[in-house]
Amino acid sequence: DTVAKIYRDEILPFFDSQNLSNTLIIDPISPSRSKFSERLVNKFTPQGKYDIEKDGLKIIIRKN
Q1: What is the rounded distance in angstroms from the CA atom of residue 51 to the CA atom of residue 45?
Q2: Residue 40 burial (CB < 10 Å; 0-12/13-18/19+)?
Q3: What is the pLDDT of residues 3-27, one digit of tens each?
Q4: N or C: which end of the chain has fewer CB within 10 A?
Q5: Read out DSSP for the chain?
C-alpha cells in the first residue's frame, strides 16, 4: 500500500509537473518485483494519458 500511495500521490504528479524528461523508467531488480511493478502501473496509471511499454523487466512510461 505504501509503495502504491507514493507512486500515485508523489511520483506521477511530479512526473507530470516537470519538464526535464518525458520518460519514466521503472527498472525492477527481479522477476517477482517486475510483476508487482506491472500490476502497480496497470492499476494506478491513468489510461490514455501515458504510453506504457514493457522492455524485458523494465516498464517505460512516456507522456503523450
Answers
A1: 10
A2: middle
A3: 999 999 999 999 999 999 999 999 9
A4: N
A5: -HHHHHIIIIIHHHHHH--S-SEEEE--SSHHHHHHHHHHHHHHSPBTTEEEEEETTEEEEEE-
